[in-house]
Design a protein that fits this description.
The complex is a heterotrimer of chains A (about 475), B (about 325) and C (about 325).
Chain A: H1 10-17, H2 21-43, H3 46-54, E1 83-86, E2 95-101, E3 107-118, E4 126-134, E5 141-147, E6 153-159, E7 165-169, H4 174-188, H5 198-203, E8 221-232, E9 237-245, H6 261-297, H7 299-314, H8 317-327, H9 332-343, H10 348-359, H11 363-370, H12 375-397, H13 399-411, H14 422-431, H15 434-437, H16 440-468
Antiparallel strand pairs in A: 1-9, 2-3, 3-8, 4-7, 4-9, 5-6, 5-8
Chain B: E1 7-20, E2 23-36, E3 40-44, H1 51-59, E4 66-75, E5 78-79, H2 85-92, E6 97-100, H3 114-125, H4 130-143, H5 160-172, E7 178-182, H6 190-207, E8 210-215, H7 218-221, E9 227-232, E10 235-241, H8 242-245, H9 252-260, H10 298-302, E11 307-309, E12 315-317, H11 319-334
Parallel strand pairs in B: 3-8, 3-9, 6-7, 7-8
Antiparallel strand pairs in B: 1-2, 1-4, 4-5, 9-10, 10-12, 11-12
Helix pairs in contact in B: 3-4, 3-5, 4-5
Chain C: E1 4-17, E2 26-39, E3 43-47, H1 54-61, E4 69-74, E5 77-78, H2 88-93, E6 94-97, H3 111-121, H4 127-140, H5 146-150, H6 159-171, E7 177-181, H7 189-206, E8 209-214, H8 217-220, E9 226-231, E10 234-240, H9 241-246, H10 251-259, H11 300-304, E11 310-313, E12 316-318
Parallel strand pairs in C: 3-8, 3-9, 6-7, 7-8
Antiparallel strand pairs in C: 1-2, 1-4, 4-5, 9-10, 10-12, 11-12
The chains are: A alpha+beta (about 475), B alpha/beta (about 325), C alpha/beta (about 325).
Chain lengths: ~475, ~325, ~325
Amino acid sequence: MSSEGYEFTLKSTIKDLLTYKSGIFGALFLILLLAISVYAIVALPYDETVRLWRGEGGVWLENPRNAQPYWVKYLGQNLPETIKRDSTQPELGGTVKIVTPIPQTDMKLARISFTFDFSYDGFPSEINIFFSAKYNGSAPLLNIYWVKPSGTEIRLLTYIPRSQEDKLYLSVNQQAANALSLYLNSVLGKSPSIPLPIEYSLFAVEDSSMNSSATAKPLKGTYRLYIDGTLFGKDSDIDAKLIVYGRVYGMAGTDNQRRDLTIALLWGTPIALAFGLTASATITFLELLLATISGYYGGKIDSVIQRITEIYMILPFLPILIMVSTFYKLDLLVLILVVIALSIFGGGIKSTRALVMQIKEYPYIEAAKAYGASSKRIVFLYIIPKILPPVIPTLIASVPSYVFLEAALAILGLGIPNLPSWGKVINESFNAGALYKGYYYWVLEPAFMLILTALAFSFLGFALDKIVNPKLREV
Amino acid sequence: MKTLAENILECKNLVLHYSTRKGVVKAVNDVTFSLQKSESLALVGESGCGKSSLAKAIIRLLPRNIEKYSGQILVNGQDTMTLSEKEFREEIRWKKISMVFQGAMNSLNPVLKVGYQVAEPLLIHEKMKKHKALEKAKEALSIVGIHESFVERYPFELSGGMKQRVVIAMALVTNPSILILDEPTSALDVITQANIMNLLKRLKKERGLSYFFITHDIALSSELADKIAVMYAGEIQEIASADIFYKKATHPYSQKLMASVPTLRIDKKPEFIVGSPPSLINPPSGCKFHPRCTLAFYKCTKESPPLSDLGSGHLVKCWLFEEHKEAERYERRTT
Amino acid sequence: MNEELLRVSGLKKYFEMRKGIFSSPIYVRAVDNVSFSLGKGEAISLVGESGSGKTTLGKTLLRLYKPTEGQIIVKGKDITYVDTKELMWYRRVTSIIEQDPYGALPSFFTIYRILEEPLLIHKFGNSNERQKRICEVLEKVRLTPIEDFAQKYPHMLSGGQLQRVAIARALTLNPELVIADEPVSMLDASVRIEILTLLKELQETLGISFIYITHDLTTTKYFSERLFIMYAGKIVESGKMFEVIHNPQHPYTEALLKAIPDPDAENRKILRDIPPGEPPNLVNPPMGCRFHPRCPYKMDICEKEEPLSFELEPKHISLCWLHNNRK
């Protein structure tokens, strides 16, 4: 007796899905990805994200460059986080600002003192001071001093801001470097053959370990940087912001443009899902339609569709896509359309057509003809609903291929500009030589997301396949 | 002088349960019967009652998802359940007991020649040399009425009836004494079926074969049966000789089965059995037939009846007869 | 006498098979020169083994195949070569009941929706009227309670219940002719009688003309007054049921009757006297009478010429040269 014996309603399918381990994992991963997508879209609106990702207006300036994710501290060293002190934000603590006018002059004396604790096992990556000075004629004259926990005080440099908003890149400042070099000479007796970077010298324990950056250790304790300034003009004022850049930042670290990678990882999710699902669903349904028409009507239509399919199957997909994207600027919509156009006559047509040709011999089709159903009705109401279940697992399982496709294009540099997708992140990391420089997280994190997506859909696809295909079912 | 009936095959309390995702299928539930030498036992029942499972249990062709497999299967007095798989394969399967499967015509390998396939059991079980096995194959084919030239043909060149004969030849080539036939004529047309039945009758007479003949077609069962066993929900409900069964089946289910058979020459209106066969995963409590039985009473819903012996090997699994026997025994005691 | 509903004359249906692009086509002569007529409200049984052409005959009568030659006249209209587009009225007037209850119903529709399809296609009334009709038809096949069954899916029903749905579907548009192709052969033996009884009742109460196609001769006794025996694409005998069964006039019918057992303990002791061999291949059937290679009464003429149709009594027809001299 031929018995289909099984019908697929959403509820029964989900129930069955959960009896397979692969189904459970797939579903969990998928829910995770969906949750991330929803969060990304809600918490970070698209335009905002694109703007941020372009880095307009120096939004990232206060982030460290190439920082690892903050949780690496559980894996090993306690790497420094970014420490900020701002004279305009006393609530951050550790700041004292005193401005005293000098009587009978237009001048004022200003002192801004930043104090902070440094108890990390690693050195900061960078130190910058941002000045916000108010003056009419002459810019203030600033002396910058550094006080180590041991109490030693070093005068680093004298600085005159060049504009009302100015940045002092302390870590690359020659004056400061010289001052430190002299100081170290006096303390250690000789200057190290290869001078340490400024941020190392400022924090290092002063002994022979300072000979190389590998052995240098930071001195833990309370540090102080103070600025003694002379202001000119009755209305003059000075504010400063000290940023001691850490080596860790956020959940995912930062890239070489100081951008928070969590944004890219988060936003990459809805992009990947949207692209993958749209491409996969559209292509699968169009292929389904073509295969059904081809299989059911037979004859000339069948021959034409099959020959076109065979030609398509020979054409190399990726090279053509690359060609197209070198000539035309791609955005997400155009990319999807091109991918769909290049895929609808794909190999899936052959197998679905075989299925259609089987189904069209089923008695219920003949009975439908006997009570007067037209060919169109039979195709859409009788055949397509029957071949839909077997086709769904393929649809799901092929989503990762399209996700990888978008990532691959991005890695090749042909992705959609301004879109913070995972492939884009990998592309930028390669361009910046991330692996050579040891910034593994930069490559691994988007790779991990890609793998997670692939696993989610593949697991679901396998489990669904077992449900839909009784022969694969375990007894 | 006729020796006391030697049972060539005896099953005692045979149990076969499968585990599936939906639960445990109790396909064979405590089955006991015996088959004498040169006797035919027909096993009849509706589809899904466990007949094929019983056959597979006897010849030990079991799937992987076995939950329980116990009982005794005595072949010529020897309990085969104690044999290892290797021993069973070498001594019993296709040596003492062969089987012809349902849809057998479709189980011929389409890419091997017919002669080779008939010879294969000899190559495997008796490790015979190829040319000798082929000779035996030709013999087997001619016994079933197929000309020896067919050893060079492929299955697709044969008609349905011929393929069925080839499969019977395959089963006979190792000279077994017991042949299990599971719906051997299911896909054949009526005249070919009658021809195959003629063949089986002849073979039984000429070679003294014992048949275990499984079918759902009661009329067809009368073509071979010396004894009939009725199976329902994994249990044997009645065993009776042919003379008794076809005239006066005793178990309520057997009676209903007989009443539902359409007859060509006898004028009778067939009656259908209300309800449908029960699930083997969740069978009814007590007597498995009680939901469909018009004669059921309270005890039938609670306890499963034993097989009552009505004399001369006539066994019935029904409380009506157990009660009757109780009454008889009581009567005898009080008189 | 009843008025005539269906008249078939010289109907042939050959299927073309091409072995290669360059070889000439060969034909499977599934239905070869069949003629008969069917009255209004009349039921007939068409018996044949697999490969006899009986299914092809049934489907050709329904115009699911286009006839190769011959004529089919229904209610006075010649429908033999008419374009399928103009046969919508015919689709309403006829129905089919298929052999496989599991495959005959679309598995993704509810029972209600399955029964609604013919009504929707033929634009039968509004949704209330359709609902009424569906309930009527479910009652007729005794699938009650209706609310229960209407929303079930086919996989939830047993074979017998599915076949009832198929019967209900065949009745939705009040057909005048129903062709049932082996309607019970895939059902359990115990269910067969139930379904056949139902079909017979419906046929009688609704006065529908019925063609019951089967390979099981025994069941035809309970179904119809007339019996048609088909062999190798031809109707070799037809007549009143009782006559044909108790007084067969064709060697093939005789062989069939001899081959069928009734449950009888004596059966195991006798060998049946039946012809050997199997039905012929319809691509190259034997010359002359198609049964002659197996016929115990074979004469010379049987190998050369196809027998004519001999009418023995009113309406008892046999396609056999044995009756030649009697004329």
